[in-house]
Amino acid sequence: MIKQPVMIQIKAFQHYEEMEQDKIGFLSAGTLCPTPFGWELSYQESALTGMEGTTTTFLIEKQRVTLLRTGPVCSQMVFEEGRRHHSMYNTPYGAMEILVSTSHLAAQMGPEGGSLEIDYAIELDHALMGQNHFRITVRKK
């Protein structure tokens, strides 16, 4: 399988209880590769996200997206619209179990790129920690 160089535009919005909405947007070089089940999109995190040295990979299937992070921050989160999934989130400061509830998932990916949109909530110890929204646009270099 050939990894194709792509440009990835990421816009993320996070809203946590009693805090202002946090917005982040950036461009990153990455790779896009077909898999037997869909697509693999991967890029390196930077100091901007606070996860420098971490590799982020999205495994994009028809109705499921799995986010994998390896490096100083390790995690696996599964997104399926209308479903809840348990996940471990490991940071240099410790590990925690979180619950990810996906309210919206739209993925359209092909050899020329595409888009990925995910709305989800994170719970920690059965308490809602925040609402999150990712919008990722991928374009062939």
Structure commentary:
This protein is mainly beta and 141 residues long. The chain has one domain: Calycin beta-barrel core domain (Lipocalin), CATH 2.40.128. Helix content is 0%, strand content 73%. The chain is built from no helices and 10 strands. Strands 1-2-3-4-5-6-7-8-9-10 form a 10-stranded antiparallel beta barrel. Strand 2 and strand 3 form a beta hairpin. The radius of gyration is 15 Å and the shape is globular. The model has no long low-confidence stretch (mean pLDDT 90).
Question: Any idea what the shape is?
Answer: globular
Q: Using DSSP, what is the number of strands?
A: 10
What is the H level of CATH, i.e. the homologous superfamily? Calycin beta-barrel core domain
CATH architecture: Beta Barrel
Briefly, what is this?
The chain is an all-beta fold.
Q: What labels would you give this structure?
A:
10 strands; 10-stranded antiparallel beta barrel; 141 residues
Protein topology:
Elements: E1 4-16, E2 22-35, E3 38-44, E4 55-60, E5 65-70, E6 74-79, E7 84-91, E8 94-110, E9 113-124, E10 127-140
Antiparallel strand pairs: 1-2, 1-10, 2-3, 3-4, 4-5, 5-6, 6-7, 7-8, 8-9, 9-10
